[in-house]
Design a protein that fits this description.
This protein is mainly alpha-helical. It has one domain. Helix 2 runs antiparallel to helix 3. The radius of gyration is 16 Å and the shape is globular. The two termini are 30 Å apart.
Length: 195
């Protein structure tokens, strides 16, 4: 049933948000010439890689420096990118990933291969479901880059503290994947972004 909801909501979302997509695309190009979209390899269901789509919020080639964003004003983030990230507009193209079945609206956020390769056998259980645009961990860690900005070693903090905490939150949904939980997480996410 959640797959049916994913298809319906992602299709309607892409249709209704198409004018916003156009505005964001123009804003990106005017602010920092280069591609509008950014496609990054992430690990999905059954440990398979897929291309996760986002609106580009960083300068071209910025991902070669680091895989995590640190602080509100990471110098790699463009002026438009700051606001695109702040209001989570960069995530909207993932509705396409949802429509084609790479992702769900609700599920564990997909990680890059580098971090997935560090998972324990127990943590690999998050790869048994479709990754999602939002989940309990996304809500709890909505300001993750601010936390990393305060860390002495952001990469170490991410690996040793944030990933295990996120996976524990992911398991809450995985162990209780009901339609009620699905809608609850969607509404909690919207409320958090508005706040």
């Amino acid at each position: 049933m959640t797959r049916f909801c994913d298809i319906v909501f992602s299709f309607i979302g892409l249709l209704l948000l198409s004018p916003l997509f156009l505005i964001v695309a123009l804003w990106i190009v005017i602010d920092d010439p280069g591609p509008v979209f950014y496609c990054q390899q992430r690990v999905g269901r059954n440990n398979k890689d897929f291309g996760l789509l986002k609106f580009r919020s960083m300068r071209v080639g910025a991902d070669k420096m680091s895989l995590i964003t640190i602080g509100d004003r990471d110098p790699r983030v463009t002026r438009a990118g700051y606001y695109i990230r702040k209001f989570k507009l960069d995530e909207l193209p993932q509705l396409w990933n949802v429509l084609i079945g790479d992702m769900s609206l609700v599920g564990p956020r997909p990680e890059v291969r580098r971090y997935v390769d560090l998972y324990t056998e127990e943590q690999c259980k998050v790869l048994s479901v479709r990754p999602g645009i939002t989940d309990y961990a996304s809500i709890e860690y909505i300001d993750e880059n601010k936390l990393l900005a305060q860390a002495e070693d952001p990469d170490k903090t991410y690996i040793e503290e944030i990933i295990p905490a996120k996976i524990a939150l992911n398991m809450r949904y995985i162990n209780d994947r009901t339609l009620g939980q699905y809608f609850k997480i969607i509404f909690l996410t919207i409320a958090k972004i508005i706040r």
